[in-house]
Amino acid sequence: MTTRGGSPSWCACRARSASPHSTWSSSRRETRPRFLTTVILRQRKRSAPASVEAADFAHVRLDPLLEAALDDRPCDVRRLFLDVQLEGTTSPRPSIETLLHAVALGLGDASWVIHTHPTVLTGLLCSSAGEELLRSGPLFPDEAVVCGSRPLIVPYAEPGLELARAFAKCLAAHVADGGDRPRVVYLANHGLVALGASATEAQAVTTMAVKAARVRLVASTVGGPRPLAQEWIDAVVSREDEIERRAALVGWA
Ligand SMILES: [Zn+2]
Fold first, then answer.
1. How far, in Å, from the CA of 159 to the mean position of ligand 1?
2. Ligand 1 center to residue 228 CA distance, Å?
3. Looking at domain 9-249, which of 3.40.225.10, 3.40.50.360, 3.40.50.1820, 3.40.47.10 is its CATH number?
4. Distance from the alpha carbon of residue 164 to the mean position of ligand 1, in angstroms
5. Which residue, 177, 135, 128, is CA-closest to 156?
6. What is the whole-number distance in angstroms between the Cα of residue 232 and the centre of ligand 1?
7. CA 253 to ligand 1 center in whole angstroms
8. Which of 13, 80, 88, 170 is the most buried if burial means most Cβ atoms within 10 Å?
């Protein structure tokens, strides 16, 4: 779990290619070395908002982490983390969940990833009935537009390498099954991973996923949710005005 000092936290990262001093860019279809910058945002005081300083950012090479996640042999993660840290930086040791981020960036068609443990969503993910609520598909147009039509649910695995490996297998199966690369990934008994092409998109997906969890809780108290029909989802996500609205929501307009 990405917690430090026992405080609630969230963990964000982004990918870039070429040298550590190059422009940030997408991790897609890159053959040059890729780098990952990750940070854990934490509340320094219970009443204060989460904050971060330059020294909190860890800078690591992405590809060795992704290779370890795609392998199934034993791996000394502590050694791996030392090996992947960029020379010349004073990075703190990255979170154990950096491996999860490497999979999201390397395989998930994303440039930004935010991993959180929102109480309402983690609560649903700690319940079999709650997980079924999350599998039921989008319940309202905004959820379909921002979070996509089909989330990925990853069964519980120990945070760290085992979780990253489980995530990689589930993501590959999801895509092989005809699914788009998801924007929302639910980790059973754990939390949320939001994928985005921009920081604004990853944040918008996180916010909408939390709202959607609250909506499910409300719907479950009044007879159960009524998911949108697939044709309604297809219609709303392809409408020109909704495409423009999503662009504004995720920071592209
Ligand atoms: Zn976590």
1. 7
2. 30
3. 3.40.225.10
4. 11
5. 128
6. 33
7. 31
8. 13
pLDDT for res 230: 87
Domain ranges of the chain: 9-249
Average the pLDDT over 186-211 and give the result: 94
The per-residue pLDDT of the chain, averaged, comes to 82
Spell out which residues have Cβ within 5 A of ligand 1, the ion: 1-2, 191
Q: What is the pLDDT of residues 205-238, one digit of tens each?
A: 999 999 999 999 999 999 999 988 888 888 888 8
CA of 115 to the centre of ligand 1 (A): 6
Give the confidence band of 150 by pLDDT, cuts at 50, 70, 90: confident
Beta bridge partners of 39: 12
Distance 97 CA to ligand 1 centre (A): 7
Burial (0-12, 13-18, 19+ Cβ within 10 Å), 39: buried
Tell me how far the alpha carbon of residue 9 lies from the centroid of ligand 1, in angstroms.
9
The CA 11 to ligand 1 mean position distance, Å, reads 8
- Cα of 75 to ligand 1 centre, how many Å? 20
